[in-house]
TrEMBL record:
Domain HTH lysR-type: 7-64
Gene3D superfamilies reported in the protein's UniProt record: Periplasmic binding protein-like II, Winged helix-like DNA-binding domain superfamily/Winged helix DNA-binding domain
Similarity-based family: Belongs to the LysR transcriptional regulatory family.
Keyword set, alphabetical order: DNA-binding, Transcription, Transcription regulation
InterPro entries associated with the record: LysR_HTH_N, LysR_subst-bd, WH-like_DNA-bd_sf, WH_DNA-bd_sf
Organism: Leuconostoc carnosum (strain JB16)
Keyword Cell cycle recorded: no
GO MF annotations, alphabetized: DNA-binding transcription factor activity; transcription cis-regulatory region binding
Record protein name field: LysR family transcriptional regulator
Domain of life according to the entry: Bacteria
Amino acid sequence: MNGNENISFDMLNVFIKVSETKSINQSSKVLLLTQPAISKKIYQLEAYVGQQLFTRSSQGMALTYNGHIFYIFATQMLAELTKTIDEINNKIFSFNDINMGVLDSISSFLFPNFFVNKVYELQNLEVTNKVFDLIKPFNEGKLDAIIIDSSFSENIIGPYVQNNLFEEPYYIVYSKSNTKIPKLIKDSIAKAIDLQKFKLVLLPMYCPIHQQVVKVFNRLNVALPEIFENDYSELTISLVKNSDFVTVLPESIAINKITQDMNGLGMKRLEIAFNRSVSVFGRSKNIVNEIEKELA
């Protein structure tokens, strides 16, 4: 062990992610770290171990023989850490002691009664519409649990427990005076390719809805439609109502908006590829189970 740096679980997480993605670029997107920061941690880890762990080439990062051995060690160590955290958290604790974060759209439209009743009981409750404002403090240990879209599990670092809470479809929301809708969407279920025919208005990329739309189009290998970004949800609905813009919303939010203006707005369900899944992420089973019990 030749390096001056002490080994850390952060280094192990970075090493494991690069091993699995075989790419510093892809790992950078998942871990929310810059590529130079990831490269530095890998070099620090190699200096600490005293062995080259990766073979670097234009095709990416491949584990060396010693890298494979170290990968087994790193994954086992993180599994032991998960077990230890669970054992520590097996002690009796109060729900009120949990530091929790939740997306605004989830607290307002999926579990409103819970958060209205519990807002003054929890030790700390963070509510935001920026998903990475929850993931970052969770990764840093400042939040014990977060309730976010399940698809963001790849951005969480370290051991965690994930339980699915809810699933719902996405809908296109449009103005009933938008004459393009019946002409361009013939089926009862709209497809990604149908969205290409419209101008789409969404909250900026920090919004999980926006990110989910981009992920689905990339996964289906379909070109994105023209997207106009807007910071205000009510302005988004106003633009949709008074123009040819359309937006995409989860069912719970879409129904809320439609019922406020049933004469002016319509909605059409999107294909299953767009379905939304919401999960609670916690650092121990006890924390997750306690939250699920309170939500029931």
